[in-house]
């Protein structure tokens, strides 16, 4: 990526056009000016088995993810293609979702048949690079969504897509711009893959460490399965102090930062620590920094964050703190490992929506290693969390870079050396 970024240059001379200032050697074109043909899509008769389960991939708007064709769920036959309004879009051309998910864009990864959700755009590659047009459509996805028309099924009219205008540089520069943006996009994808692999490693380690510990050779049978001989089976109240939240009077709330930040539910939670949106001048129940914040009501029952400061906690939150401060993180990971079970039990508690009360929290079954081992297990899992945070921050930085580069490269504010 440094090589691509180093090829950027400033000192551009501009001219005025209907879409604003663009470089002197660029031109303003409509999408139809650089396209050979636009193709509509369709769905073969779903009641005719001769039309389905063939070898031609067929997609709808639901098969797009992150501006790519994410999966192929259905295949049609050549007969199904012939006897429907679907069309086969050649590999390397543009796919635009124009119904049910307008603004999604992809480059066809292979020859692919399309549903009525999608418009295929086959480009004149003497005039335009498909990759460059792809990035322009990604850049203009919000603009595409604002032109939606229709009532029962909203969609983007093909005519509006055809007249979408944009600034077009010479073909070699188009390819270079697309290369720069694709390089950043690939880096984002690789970071996402690393993150997903790390999450799988963490999940496997959690299951092993929280039931078998570190380096044990001797185990004993319990109702919770075989566990190390020096571990105990207890409950959450044996190792933690639990504080249930209580909401202050409504007239004490403000958004100006006056008083104590208050947390009422999962909308304020992130992957790790919460971001409050309200404050209260009359704190009721307060948690301390490093307490576990545990959602006790609704569809997010069991979701957790770690407090990074003192907060007033409303009735949707409980604060959980280890009786020995050093074991709070072990408690966090143990609860995290049990979240699906906790939610299932809370959902079956007889209420109209999931909830868990103080007594039920206290009674959560807990495997209790010696304190020193609790710390070691927490350290290993915390290290993985720190790596996930670093990867997440790196990905966010790359995403911000991509947005910034699109803004300057696709408008010619900064040029690339060809």
What is the secondary structure topology, with strand pairs?
Elements: H1 2-6, E1 8-9, E2 14-17, E3 20-23, E4 27-30, E5 35-39, E6 52-59, E7 64-65, E8 68-69, E9 74-76, H2 78-82, E10 88-89, E11 94-97, E12 105-107, E13 112-114, E14 118-123, H3 130-139, H4 141-145, H5 158-162, E15 165-168, H6 171-212, E16 219-222, E17 225-228, E18 232-235, H7 236-239, E19 240-244, E20 253-254, E21 260-263, E22 278-280, E23 286-287, E24 292-295, E25 304-306, E26 311-313, E27 317-322, H8 328-347, H9 358-362, E28 365-368, H10 371-409, E29 415-416
Parallel strand pairs: 6-13, 21-26
Antiparallel strand pairs: 1-29, 2-3, 4-15, 5-14, 6-9, 7-8, 10-13, 11-12, 11-14, 16-17, 18-28, 19-27, 20-22, 21-22, 23-26, 24-25, 24-27
Helix pairs in contact: 6-10
Written description of the protein model:
The chain is an alpha+beta fold. Among the domains are: 27-168, Adenine-n6-DNA-methyltransferase TaqI, Chain A, domain 2; 232-368, Adenine-n6-DNA-methyltransferase TaqI, Chain A, domain 2 (Alpha-Beta Complex), CATH 3.90.220.20. The protein has ten helices and 29 strands. The strands form ten sheets. A five-stranded mixed β-sheet has the order 20-22-21-26-23, with no helix packed on it. The longest helix has 42 residues, at 171-212. It starts with a helix and ends with a strand. Mean pLDDT is 90; it is low at 2-6.
Give the gist of this structure.
The protein starts with a helix and ends with a strand. 33% of the residues lie in helices and 25% in strands.
**What is the number of helical segments per DSSP (H or I, 4+ residues)?**
10
Residue ranges: pLDDT <50 for 5 or more in a row?
2-6
State the share of residues found in helices, binned by percent. 25-40%
CATH architectural category of the domain at 27-168: Alpha-Beta Complex
- Biggest β-sheet: count, sense, barrel? 5 strands, mixed
Mean pLDDT: 90
What is the topology, as strand order, of the major beta sheet? Answer: 20-22-21-26-23
Structural class of the secondary structure composition? alpha+beta
- Beta-strand share of residues: 25-35%
* CATH class (first level) name of the domain at 27-168: Alpha Beta
First-residue to last-residue Cα separation = 16 Å
Radius of gyration: 28 Å
| CATH topology heading of the domain at 27-168 | Adenine-n6-DNA-methyltransferase TaqI, Chain A, domain 2
Q: What's the overall geometry?
A: elongated
CATH superfamily of the domain at 27-168: DNA methylase specificity domains
Overall number of strands: 29
């Amino acid at each position: 990526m440094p090589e691509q970024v180093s090829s950027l240059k400033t000192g551009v001379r501009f001219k005025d056009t209907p879409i604003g200032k663009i470089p002197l050697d660029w031109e303003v074109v409509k999408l139809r000016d650089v396209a050979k043909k636009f193709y509509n899509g369709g769905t073969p008769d779903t009641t005719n088995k001769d039309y389905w389960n063939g070898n031609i991939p067929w997609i709808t708007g639901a098969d797009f993810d992150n501006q790519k064709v994410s999966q192929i769920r259905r295949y049609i036959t050549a007969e199904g293609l012939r006897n429907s309004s679907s069309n086969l879009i050649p590999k390397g051309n543009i796919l635009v979702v124009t119904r049910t998910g307008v603004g999604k864009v992809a480059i066809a990864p292979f020859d692919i048949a399309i549903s009525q959700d999608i418009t295929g755009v086959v480009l004149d590659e003497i005039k335009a690079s498909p990759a460059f047009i792809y990035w322009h459509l990604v850049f203009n996805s919000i603009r595409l969504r604002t032109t939606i028309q229709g009532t029962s099924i909203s969609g983007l009219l093909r005519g509006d897509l055809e007249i979408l205008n944009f600034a077009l540089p010479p073909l070699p520069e188009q390819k270079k711009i697309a290369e720069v943006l694709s390089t950043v996009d690939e880096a984002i994808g690789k970071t996402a893959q690393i993150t997903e692999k790390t999450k799988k490693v963490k999940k496997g380690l959690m299951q092993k460490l929280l039931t078998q510990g570190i380096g044990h050779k001797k185990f004993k049978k319990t109702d919770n399965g075989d566990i190390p001989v020096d571990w105990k089976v207890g409950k959450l109240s044996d190792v933690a102090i639990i504080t249930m939240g209580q909401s202050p009077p409504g007239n004490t709330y403000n958004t100006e930062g006056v008083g104590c930040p208050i947390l009422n539910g999962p909308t304020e939670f992130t992957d790790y620590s919460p971001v409050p949106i309200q404050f209260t001048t009359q704190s009721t129940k307060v948690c301390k920094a490093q307490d576990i914040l545990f959602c006790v009501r609704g569809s997010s029952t069991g979701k957790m964050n770690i407090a990074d400061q003192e907060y007033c906690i409303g009735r949707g939150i409980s604060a959980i703190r280890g009786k020995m401060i050093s074991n709070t993180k072990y408690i966090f990971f143990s609860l995290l490992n049990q979240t699906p079970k906790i939610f299932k039990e809370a959902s079956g508690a007889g209420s109209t929506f999931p909830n868990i009360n103080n007594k039920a929290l206290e009674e959560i079954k807990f495997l209790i290693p010696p304190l020193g081992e609790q710390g070691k297990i927490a350290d290993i899992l915390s290290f993985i969390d720190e790596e996930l945070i670093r990867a997440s921050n790196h990905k966010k930085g790359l995403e911000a870079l991509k947005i910034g580069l699109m803004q300057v490269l696709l408008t010619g504010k900064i040029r690339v050396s060809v």
